[in-house]
Write a structure and sequence with these properties.
By secondary structure, this protein is of the alpha/beta class. The chain has 8 helices and 10 strands. The structure holds adenosine-5'-diphosphate and magnesium ion. Adenosine-5'-diphosphate binds next to helix 1.
Length: about 230
């Protein structure tokens, strides 16, 4: 599903943001990525979306070889990857329903299909009753749940989350992680960058630790690694 072979990314010459990364994530996995600020976590996500190109090395996502993918095929790659960010990135002048539907209109789905999908997503994140609300009328946790619904509306096979609970209190953080776990149980491959070690310890998922652009550990059940 996701393969990196000896991937290096240098923004400017000097210390690379990613330095010789080898990584393999299978279909259906749930993976945490942890590590200090500046260790290369967001860069990894940008490479998977092909927002950036690797300086060297090979990247495959869903059997697509990203080094060689044409501009024309980029939308098809991006449709198959949902993304969630720390700062939600909702459209402030659209209500919840339209924020989610907007992601589908981009791919020109018929309105009846859009309605069914949007409502299914809202139900999954527990926000059916808020479909008319605007982002500024929602709590941070609710806004992030809308962002997750939007990320999933085109049924991507992969969901990438870059510090999705970075702006949330512990209770809302847990709520978001439980939703991500449920999404994974329904078959989506989920990769979550986080600093929330309490949650990483408790959820016991595969956990990759990065430092200075390298993977310094990759353990099957995060909780055991961080326990004394
Ligand atoms: N657009 C950029 N231009 C130059 N350097 C960058 C850019 N984005 C990130 N970096 C550098 O790359 C390294 C990794 O950054 P990043 O991937 O954002 O780390 P993390 O998400 O783990 O905090 C850092 O040293 C950062 O300063
Ligand atoms: Mg980052």
């Amino acid at each position: 599903m996701i393969i990196l072979e000896n991937v290096t990314k240098e923004y400017t010459s000097g210390t690379p943001a990613l330095n010789g990364i080898d990584l393999r994530i299978e279909k259906g996995e749930f993976v945490f990525v942890v590590g200090n600020s500046g260790s290369g976590k967001s860069t990894l996500i940008k490479l998977l979306l092909k927002e950036l190109d690797a300086t060297s090395g090979k990247i495959y996502v869903n059997k697509k070889y990203l080094n060689k993918i044409t501009r024309k095929r980029l939308p098809s790659l991006r449709r198959d990857i949902g993304v969630v960010f720390q700062d939600f990135r909702l459209l402030p002048d659209r209500n919840v329903y339209d924020n989610i539907a907007f992601a589908m209109k981009v791919v020109e789905a018929p309105s009846r299909i859009i309605r069914g999908r949007v409502l299914a997503m809202l139900s999954m994140v527990g926000l059916l009753d808020k479909y008319k609300s605007f982002p500024n009328e929602l709590s941070g946790g609710e806004q992030q749940r809308v962002a997750i619904a939007r990320a999933l509306v085109n049924e991507p096979s992969i969901l990438l989350c870059d510090e999705p609970t970075g702006n949330l209190d512990p209770e809302n953080s847990w709520e978001i992680m439980k939703i991500l776990d449920e999404i994974n149980k329904r078959g989506t491959t989920v990769l979550v960058v986080t600093h929330n070690m309490e949650i990483v310890q408790a959820m016991k998922k595969r956990t990759i630790t990065m430092n200075n652009g390298k993977i310094i550990s990759d353990v099957e059940k995060g909780g055991y690694f961080y326990e004394d």
